[in-house]
């Protein structure tokens, strides 16, 4: 259940109540692809880093260790030791990312595993069954994410197929949630808006999928080749068509600037691998901009990564030490920087919520929109 607390313009402050806890929105979901944050963090670490939601990857967990194995071990919550909400994607993004290894039909998609090449079939029913076995809090509908730019006719046909798949997803989830051996019989289903960069397709698709009265709605198929201006235009076109009483999730986005812009346009929830991926390559986000810890200027710099940050890394370690760790190939460098970036992202969303509570989001936006993505 989603509760809208207040608006500032189109920006929304709300709460999402789930079977595994309440999420304060706007919120960032922390990507634990295979059940762990890349960079050596566990679910227990996430609690100290202000995390609210963990996102796990259906496709990867289906391959290893196998969704049936996870079910036998009690579901993702027991398996990973994370006791808050978990969202699982549907595997639909792999329709996009494994374009050279797939074959799309009305029934579903045949993949070649990126691990050993064996053939995998996944359709709406298979995706729902895998996610039910994983026992996540929120399951995403199975969809096709097309690469931008896409031909209009292909994008239109893909949208129509995604809607047909959504009806099949809902029917299968209703069936699964009625079974006595299902771990999470209150699993929620969120639909995904598609339509490439065509506003008319996006609007038509959103009007169609909102008829199912799902638990939440995502805007998918963005940050996959289009410009940021195109992305913002699509959000603005779709937002008026999205139910006001349901959470809105922008999939796979993004930078601090992207998040501020999307919150301003009415988005509630985000996920992105950027904080952990960038951190593993020495790039950290700070309230003054982005730092590259490989730069020689940090050799003798005894300041923390961000002098205004109180994360575990900034409390105890210097830029010089972390610079040395990267240069020495020490894994600790990655863990310390991932810790900082995850904390930074969750603090950013926390401050956005505070600004909305206090009615000064526009001021917060103006003070930070050009600064946070600047390279120091």
From TrEMBL:
Q: Which UniProt keywords apply?
A: Glycosyltransferase, Metal-binding, Queuosine biosynthesis, Transferase, tRNA processing, Zinc
Residues that bind substrate: 89-93, 143, 194, 221
Q: Which GO terms describe its biological process?
A: tRNA queuosine(34) biosynthetic process
- Gene3D superfamilies, per database record: Queuine tRNA-ribosyltransferase-like
Q: Tell me the active site.
A: 89, 271
- Enumerate the residues binding Zn(2+): 309, 311, 314, 340
Entry keyword Kinase? no
Pinpoint the tRNA-guanine(15) transglycosylase-like domain residues.
11-371
Query: Which terms in the Gene Ontology molecular function aspect does this entry carry?
Result: metal ion binding; tRNA-guanosine(34) queuine transglycosylase activity
Give the Enzyme Commission number: 2.4.2.29
Pathway per its UniProt entry is: tRNA modification; tRNA-queuosine biosynthesis
- Ranges for the region named RNA binding are 252-258
Q: Which cofactor does it need?
A: Zn(2+)
What does the record note about the cofactor? Answer: Binds 1 zinc ion per subunit.
- Name any GO cellular component annotation: cytosol
Q: What does this protein do?
A: Catalyzes the base-exchange of a guanine (G) residue with the queuine precursor 7-aminomethyl-7-deazaguanine (PreQ1) at position 34 (anticodon wobble position) in tRNAs with GU(N) anticodons (tRNA-Asp, -Asn, -His and -Tyr). Catalysis occurs through a double-displacement mechanism. The nucleophile active site attacks the C1' of nucleotide 34 to detach the guanine base from the RNA, forming a covalent enzyme-RNA intermediate. The proton acceptor active site deprotonates the incoming PreQ1, allowing a nucleophilic attack on the C1' of the ribose to form the product.
Q: How does it assemble?
A: Homodimer. Within each dimer, one monomer is responsible for RNA recognition and catalysis, while the other monomer binds to the replacement base PreQ1.
Into which family does the record put it?
A: Belongs to the queuine tRNA-ribosyltransferase family.
This one is known as Queuine tRNA-ribosyltransferase
Q: Which organism is it from?
A: Caproiciproducens galactitolivorans
């Amino acid at each position: 259940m989603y509760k809208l607390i207040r608006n500032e313009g189109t920006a929304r402050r709300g709460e999402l109540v789930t079977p595994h806890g309440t999420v304060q929105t706007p919120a960032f979901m922390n990507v634990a692809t295979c059940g762990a944050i890349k960079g050596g963090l566990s679910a227990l670490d996430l609690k100290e880093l202000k995390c609210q939601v963990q996102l796990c990857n259906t496709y990867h967990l289906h391959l290893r260790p196998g969704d049936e194995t996870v079910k036998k071990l009690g579901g993702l919550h027991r398996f990973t030791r994370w006791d808050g909400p978990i969202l699982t994607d549907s595997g639909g993004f792999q329709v996009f990312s494994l374009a050279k290894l797939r074959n799309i039909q009305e029934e579903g998609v045949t993949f070649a595993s990126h691990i050993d090449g064996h053939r995998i079939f996944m359709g709406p029913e298979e995706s729902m069954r895998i996610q039910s076995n994983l026992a996540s809090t929120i399951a995403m509908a199975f969809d096709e994410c097309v690469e931008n730019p896409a031909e209009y006719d292909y994008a239109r046909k893909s949208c129509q197929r995604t809607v047909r798949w959504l009806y099949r997803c809902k029917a299968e989830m209703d069936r699964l949630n009625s079974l006595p051996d299902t771990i999470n019989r209150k699993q929620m289903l969120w639909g995904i808006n598609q339509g490439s960069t065509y506003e008319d397709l996006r609007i038509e698709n959103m009007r169609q999928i909102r008829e199912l009265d799902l638990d939440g709605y995502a805007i998918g198929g963005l940050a996959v080749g289009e410009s940021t201006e195109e992305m913002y235009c699509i959000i603005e076109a779709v937002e008026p068509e999205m139910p006001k009483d349901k959470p809105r999730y922008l999939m796979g986005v993004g930078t601090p600037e992207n998040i501020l812009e999307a919150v301003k346009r009415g988005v509630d929830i985000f996920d992105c691998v950027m904080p952990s991926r960038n951190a593993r390559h020495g790039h950290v986000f700070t309230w003054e901009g982005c730092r590259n810890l490989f730069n020689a200027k940090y050799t003798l710099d005894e300041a923390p990564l961000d002098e205004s940050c109180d994360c575990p890394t900034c409390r105890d370690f210097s830029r010089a030490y972390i610079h040395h760790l990267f240069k020495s190939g020490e894994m600790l460098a990655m863990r310390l920087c991932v810790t900082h970036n995850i904390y930074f992202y969750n603090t950013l969303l926390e401050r956005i919520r505070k600004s909305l509570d206090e009615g000064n989001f526009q001021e917060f936006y103006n003070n930070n929109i050009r600064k946070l993505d600047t390279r120091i």
